[in-house]
UniProtKB/TrEMBL annotation, chains A, B, C, D:
One of its GO terms (biological process) is S-adenosylmethionine cycle. It comes from the Bacteria. This is Adenosylhomocysteinase. GO terms for molecular function: adenosylhomocysteinase activity. Pathway: Amino-acid biosynthesis; L-homocysteine biosynthesis; L-homocysteine from S-adenosyl-L-homocysteine: step 1/1.
Amino acid sequence: MVATPIKAKYDIKDISLAPKGKQRIDWAGREMPVLRQIQERFAKEQPFAGIRIAACCHVTTETAHLAIALKAGGADAVLIASNPLSTQDDVAACLVADYGIPVYAIKGEDNATYNRHVQTALDHKPNIIIDDGSDVVATLIKERQHQIGDLIGTTEETTTGIVRLLAMLKDKVLTFPAVNVNDADTKHFFDNRYGTGQSTLDGIIRATNVLLAGKSVVVAGYGWCGKGVAMRARGLGSSVIVTEIDPVRAIEAAMDGFRVMPMAQAAAEGDIFITVTGNKHVIRPEHFEVMKDGAMVCNSGHFDIEIDLKSLGAKATEVKEVRNFTQKYSLPSGKSIVVLGEGRLINLAAAEGHPSAVMDMSFANQALACEYLVKNKGKLAPGIYNIPKELDQEIASLKLKAMGISIDTLTAEQEEYINSWTMGT
Amino acid sequence: MVATPIKAKYDIKDISLAPKGKQRIDWAGREMPVLRQIQERFAKEQPFAGIRIAACCHVTTETAHLAIALKAGGADAVLIASNPLSTQDDVAACLVADYGIPVYAIKGEDNATYNRHVQTALDHKPNIIIDDGSDVVATLIKERQHQIGDLIGTTEETTTGIVRLLAMLKDKVLTFPAVNVNDADTKHFFDNRYGTGQSTLDGIIRATNVLLAGKSVVVAGYGWCGKGVAMRARGLGSSVIVTEIDPVRAIEAAMDGFRVMPMAQAAAEGDIFITVTGNKHVIRPEHFEVMKDGAMVCNSGHFDIEIDLKSLGAKATEVKEVRNFTQKYSLPSGKSIVVLGEGRLINLAAAEGHPSAVMDMSFANQALACEYLVKNKGKLAPGIYNIPKELDQEIASLKLKAMGISIDTLTAEQEEYINSWTMGT
Amino acid sequence: MVATPIKAKYDIKDISLAPKGKQRIDWAGREMPVLRQIQERFAKEQPFAGIRIAACCHVTTETAHLAIALKAGGADAVLIASNPLSTQDDVAACLVADYGIPVYAIKGEDNATYNRHVQTALDHKPNIIIDDGSDVVATLIKERQHQIGDLIGTTEETTTGIVRLLAMLKDKVLTFPAVNVNDADTKHFFDNRYGTGQSTLDGIIRATNVLLAGKSVVVAGYGWCGKGVAMRARGLGSSVIVTEIDPVRAIEAAMDGFRVMPMAQAAAEGDIFITVTGNKHVIRPEHFEVMKDGAMVCNSGHFDIEIDLKSLGAKATEVKEVRNFTQKYSLPSGKSIVVLGEGRLINLAAAEGHPSAVMDMSFANQALACEYLVKNKGKLAPGIYNIPKELDQEIASLKLKAMGISIDTLTAEQEEYINSWTMGT
Amino acid sequence: MVATPIKAKYDIKDISLAPKGKQRIDWAGREMPVLRQIQERFAKEQPFAGIRIAACCHVTTETAHLAIALKAGGADAVLIASNPLSTQDDVAACLVADYGIPVYAIKGEDNATYNRHVQTALDHKPNIIIDDGSDVVATLIKERQHQIGDLIGTTEETTTGIVRLLAMLKDKVLTFPAVNVNDADTKHFFDNRYGTGQSTLDGIIRATNVLLAGKSVVVAGYGWCGKGVAMRARGLGSSVIVTEIDPVRAIEAAMDGFRVMPMAQAAAEGDIFITVTGNKHVIRPEHFEVMKDGAMVCNSGHFDIEIDLKSLGAKATEVKEVRNFTQKYSLPSGKSIVVLGEGRLINLAAAEGHPSAVMDMSFANQALACEYLVKNKGKLAPGIYNIPKELDQEIASLKLKAMGISIDTLTAEQEEYINSWTMGT
């Protein structure tokens, strides 16, 4: 290979962290058999030869495997962080040093740096944008209309990003195809539910070391992520309260055995609050006011706006770091509120993000979505496209096989039966 | 009203059971506040004045409330059983005696009687068919094409029925509108999952009085019904195995903590087998052969074809009733297999079907779907229509209120936020 | 054998129910392999030759197997009901007709009849009393001191009965040996927890057919029975509140994820109340007053005094049967309270009591306890004796084997290790 | 206070870690209200004035509070590590620097250092030994009989240590009183179950970041610790297999819904193995041989002998660190086994040990047990003593209050009822 890693431009914390990153990336690969098979095929077929890709993702050991797979497939890819707190600096170092992939991401970077990295991603003149929350796409539309001609399309893997793309579509500014990776069954069923579920509680435990058993945990939002978080909080012995704005989900939560009530009421009961709504200011001054002394609040939704920390900070008489990723806001009333991970995704801030086993499927979807865009270049009208059902089923089958699980197949008789309406009782 | 109850034609077990039926219907009404409100509105608005409705349903206390609501709305309705074993004879008696609704349904009726009742329903020349499994509609298409002109449309509430309607659509024989009640969120999330879940286990316990704790339970199918059954079997202390043909559902079951394997392997491990697939011969001779002595098999899917009882019966040296709804098939090997509820829906055969609280929402959907068909008479092309999202949300809201649960509403700021794509990190 | 069944004296509902009783007793036997092995040994060894036994038990299919085993061992046994509502009349009929065992028990018998049957049991001049709640023993002490000389000892299998025996011991009126069957691990771990757990919820569902999912269930008492009931209510989708008087159990309930609060507070939140405390008036007027309209109350503790129904009845403007085993008490406030099973053990009143699989172990303990008393006749000082550990382990091993489960055994190295203190880190 | 912290002798990693230790110790204190109240009383009453205490514990933030409480009560205390891997170096530093408590403990210390520290503890000539696994007591008996005269008594808080004390008692070498803290309800119910449960899974996740959902987890041992581990593994979505040697516990595990089988069979099925038996070589060569490639093994029992790592290491072709606390043993067959935390307590090696909330009660028991020994100096015969029931209840009541939970108290009528045997049905 001609590319010489050391010449790669990058903006990372410390390149000497590469060996530790390598070790951790290798470890993650162990649980990512689906993406590995795709990478092997890409290496042979070179679907991305001559294609520039800008990927905006949480820079984790799992993302590393996606980036490596794209590069193996011939892509000229750059990687930036989709969140100022989620970067794993050793992973960034390894991608630069060992794989020659330009990375622009530093854990704890300030907003100015974050925004500069978004610009760097666009400076790469991407043909494909892999986005996570739609920040790169939104910036492209707002500031670089002239580059849209370069774009084959974008892929998006968060609920939040899809909501924004739908708003762009309504406003008629989405003038290129976008693939909705989030709604692939092999993505949202697993990543959002089991991934967010485990890793959110993991983040809370690492940040605080509190016993979950016997605690009252309030989960705001009962979408796929909220379902996962509520299920795991209960699995660790907490009594869980769910808040919702959607009546169907609210009944679902109730019938799953959780208590359902408005946040105004839950605020007074909870020991730990977790927001996963995709919305803004779900916990706000009126709620802080009635919380117990020492109540903990954190967020596992995409953006750091679900908890109104600005208002909280404005009122606080002191903000003090009491453990890593754990800040105590003292209030004039004498009460304090403990904020975890600065209100950013707690699973990435205080833990290691989603386990590899789920990201394997999510990133397999990303990789295949990129290939799909390239294969269909010029054929797709502007709009939002779902992952084709067949890809979804194929990913699931590869995964099952890797898990060592066999399942049934239809007999000829059954095949005929379910395609017929004439056989009855 | 002119109609004199006692003159109603009917074919039921014993009209003297009416008082007990009345008592039980009244009791069920307690948990059906949504349908009650709809009934009250229907009584005022008379949406079904002059409309003939043939309803094919499980004749239970909950169905009684649907029938009463339709009649209150002016309908000229007849009711037949959608399953030979599911009729509650006291309910049938009460509907005839106290409400003047013609019912043709006898618990344990043979297939000839069942088919005759389907014909009776069609003799009523229905403008609307409320179907459950699509038997009435299939018969109409096969045998009474001339009556299709009378039909405004049909509603269907089972997964099985929808699969058949889709096959009819593909075969171009579905020449009228059909409303898919099954896929309303307020139907399948609740009825299929929580309703089937509880009532299936209830049926098994009533039929056998076995302790579920410590038993190995095999659930065939991990759709909404299967999810509910697996969840409740675990909730009662069983170790649950799931079989599937769909890889996505299979991984979902595995990540929910269940073991997943082909039926051929599960057959040797299970103590109790429950089929909820909507397919045919899911348990068949090759499986019976490897089962433990005394293994129990039952079905909670729509039709009684999921277990191949004909083959089992052909092999058996003796078939003996060992408890109500419980038959022991002795096999030449000396082993026996215990069949519950003759392979028909065990929750209706041995217990009382879905609890009223879920049927409240399902039948609210049915009632509103009928009204929707009437209101849109002549405007809907042939095809399958979903329940409009607004009706679904309205039903959920009414239900929540009846459950005494309040939820959050969006603030103006939040409303703006989720409709915008320009605000980012 | 000389005894001619038809001459047996008895007081039962209807001897013609015997065939149905036989069928059900045979079915139960299927899940009672441990007691069956004991019965086979008794039949050979005749440990009870010449011994008169009075057994006061719930007359169920499982008790039938205990009675049959005792008789097989040579006992001259009579059986009375330990609860006016728990008798299964067909079982009583079969024991009389087919096994020649005198039974004095009628479902729904009034208190006078119940007390007369207790006298009949004592008229039998028992050498051994198998008691269930200590009513027979208490009557013996209070009214028939002269018969105490006949007595070898008594066995007791309820928590309630043990509490009473301890009180007798303290009052120095317990002048004979009593075997505490309740505290055998193979009894209370399983019977009280898994047996009471499943059968209590089963009783509630049969009595009401309500959906448990989404309901708020209040469990009073978190002993072994309460743990089982709470676990199963949660397993069926309810949100569970526990009330307790013991602080250790209260924390345990909280850390198991349940909410814990005083009954005065829980009363306003619950949809369904279940008492399992062994104490009196756990739910009383002050609680009824704040309950929701339509709240359901039932009891799964030994005696029917846990709910103060007398006070409730005194206030009620009407008491009406709304379903079998389900009575609605209308209160002057316009609110109503629904009482299940008249406040008696709901699992026996509305369902079939504990499943055979757990009673197998409980009654194996009873049978071996009786044998133990006979073998140690004259050697045991007055007092309360636990089941020897070896019997307990033996029962567990037999049961495991019957369940098809193998477990590990200590290696020689391990055996040495756990008996030594000199090997350390 | 005269004691000048800087003069304290100690053997720790790095005293400059004290500020971080202080921060973390303060944080832990937040969840330890019971011990705090005891400390405040000790500070006033000075129960340990003139008493030398040697404490051998896991040197964690929670232990820090115990040491501080003892010192506040006047004790001349030294602290050593009870396990070479469990020391938190920052805590050790803070205790030395800020509280003047001599600590001898370094994370990762070798066996020679560990043993030297045990000697140092005995050089302190303790009047009371707080032991954790009985290593200090065993060394005293074996090597320093002449010091036994100094000893008032010892306290022990692990199941393992109690087993060893019982063996010492049998061998007649336990010639002083020992208080069994482990069997206090407020200790083993909570610490062993909820503490070990959460922290073991936490340790595994921190060490590996694997997704637990969908994994097959084998738990060896179903005592209080094993129950906690199995419950939490299930709560995180794993399918759990339990191995046992005790038949009663084996049935209990089965009825709790887990699969039960011998380790020889489980070895081939598990993805992750966790030993919590208190015994030796529970996983040994015959089991490694049949494990899946990449199977993970770890231990949460007291000593590092539950997994036979010596044999595994002897066979391995390579042992490689693949993540912190995670080593891959490559076997000649081409398969590898992943060992976490070197087979030492995984919750202390890779995570932070038990959460403060449970240690609060455990260490409250320790503190009160020490006070009990001092108060009863000279009055207790050699032997093993349980914590008095009243202390246990008092701790539970204090804890409940701190959790904000109220419970019921007996009414006068109820008090009378449960003390009487004369009131019956």
